[in-house]
Amino acid sequence: MSTRPKIEVENLRLWYGTKPVLHGLTFSVQEGEILAVIGPAQSGKSSLLKCLNRTIELVPGARVEGSIRIDGRDIRQIRDVHALRRRIGMVTPLPVGLPMSIYDNVAFAPRCAGITDRRELDARVEECLRQAALWDEVKDRLHMLGTKLPGGQQQRLTIARALSHKPDILCLDEFSIAIDPVTTMRIEEVLRELRSRMTIILVTNLTQQARRLADRTLFLWKGELVELDRTEVIFSEHPRDRRTHEYVRGFFG
Questions:
Q1: Digit-coded pLDDT (tens) for 123-148
Q2: Residue 178 in this model has a pLDDT that exceeds 80
C-alpha cells in the first residue's frame, strides 16, 4: 500500500440548512487502502460520502466548508463535476438497477464516455462483471432486464456498473443492508481483490464487517470524528476513546 494520501479531508463541516451535520472532520485515506466508516445512525456517514463526490451539492440547503483534496487537488477546483464522479464509484444501500439489460447497465457509463466500439464494450462489460463476481451467473443472459435479477445479483450488478468507468476510488454505503449473508461474503471477497486497484471507503453499520475488511476504521458519532486508527486498535480492548470501546461492543448504536 502506498504511503501517499489519496484523499485528504481538512476541517470538513456540513450543514443542512441550519442543522450542523459534520463538525470539522480532518483525516486522510491512503492509496490502496480500505477505510471503514462506522457509527450510529444519523452520525453523518452517508453525508460524508456525498461530500467526496460532490453529490451533496444536489441536496437543497446543504452548505459545506473546509477542503477535500484528491491526489492533492481540491475537488472544488474541478470544473467538470461529472469527471470527478467518474473517478469515484458509488454503491448505495439498496441496489438501483437501470431499466435496461444487464449488458447495457454496465455499458452505460463507458458509452457516455464515448466508447462505441463493440469489442471494447464487450471486454469492459465482461471485465466488470467478473470483478463483481457476477459474470459466471449471467454470461448467458446478458440481454435480460437487470431489474429482474434477485437482490444479491442486483447489488453485484450495481458494483459492476460502479466499476465500469474505472474509478480510482470506490465508495460503498451499507452495500449489504438488503442482501443475504452468503452474497455479502462474496462481495467482501470482491472488495479484497479490488483493493490492489483502487482506494475503498466502506460505510457500514456492521462492525464485524469493518473488522474483517478494513485496514483502518473511522468512528463517527453525531458528526464528530471520535477516533481513527488501525482496525485492530479500534477493536482492541483499549481504543483511545471510551465511546469507541462501547460502540464496537454494542453498548449503544
A1: 999 999 998 889 999 999 999 999 99
A2: no
The string of DSSP codes covering 34-57 is EEEEE-STTSSHHHHHHHHTTGGG
Ordered domains of the chain (ranges, CATH): 5-248 (3.40.50.300)
> Reduced to 3 DSSP states, what percent helix, strand and coil does the chain have, rounded to the nearest 5?
40, 25, 35
The answer to whether the CB of 47 falls within 8 A of the CB of 20 is no
Contact 171, 53 (CB under 8 A): yes
- Does residue 240 sit in helix, strand or coil? coil
What is the DSSP track for 185-200?
HHHHHHHHHHTTTSEE
- Quote the CA–CA distance of 227 and 240 in Å, as a whole number: 7
Q: What is the mean pLDDT of residues 28-55?
A: 95
Looking at residue 234, what is its pLDDT?
Answer: 96
Furthest C-alpha separation in the chain: 56
Q: What is the structure's pLDDT at 2? A: 52
The set of residues, in sequence order, having a beta carbon less than 8 Å from that of 234 and lying 6+ positions away, is 210, 216, 217, 219, 227, 244, 248
d(CA 135, CA 132): 8
127: burial class by Cβ within 10 Å (0-12, 13-18, 19+)? middle
Cross-strand pairs, 224: 221
What cell does 195 get?
483493493
pLDDT tens across 64-114, in order? 999 999 999 999 999 999 889 989 999 988 777 778 999 999 999 999 888
Q: Indicate whether 246 pLDDT > 70.
A: yes
What is the C-alpha separation between 73 and 67, in angstroms, rounded? 10
- Check: CB of residue 224 under 8 Å from CB of residue 23: yes
| Residue 248 φ then ψ, to 5° | -70, -15
